[in-house]
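As a warm-up, study this chain.
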Amino acid sequence: MNLLAVDTSSGQGSLALARDDGWCEMATLPGEWKSTTLHAEIARLLGLHGLKSRDLDGYAVANGPGTFTGLRIGLTAVKALAEVHGKHIITVSTLEVLAAAGRDTLPAQFSGGLAALLDARRGQIFGGLFRTEGSALLPVIPDCVCPLKIFLERVRAASCKELRFCAMELALFADAISQAGWNELSHLVVSTDLAGTLARMGIERLKQGMGLAAEAAEANYVRPSDAELFWKG
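Now compare it with the structure written out below.
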């Protein structure tokens, strides 16, 4: 099984080509990328391994929250390819991918909570809280947009026995997290190249029959108009 994963939910986009035998190769999108860049990078990554888009068995895409423009470009590209070739798409919350990437850095026995954070600008964050159960991540606080202080209060009320905060730009949130009473051991800096984690999740879910037809795959903006406004700053 060959799967292409696309994450364009933030300013730093990434792609991954993966197989169900565990092999995976990632590519980081260049700075100031745009729609034409994304299509060229997809073709380049596939070409490196002698593949065409018709050789893919499915797709995975981080469908938000994140930048309005980035999400639209990534989802549109994946939907077009899936529709042309009659393949299915796995959509995964960007916050869940962040939490999963953080989980991958922790010991196998970790069974606490993972709070995923993205900067939504203008004093807001995109946040979600997940509880680990084996290899699964179960939502405790659904994806939301709010001031960081309010999100931290909700996280505290959830009473996770162990907690890790997962973010690509954790320095933006570190002081507030510390002031709320959590020490630096709770901080997990996650790589901006999320596509590798997304690809693994996509293959697992595609095998479970969770794929969507192209027309059913939608973006998860959380609050579309606000999301675009926050990211423009």
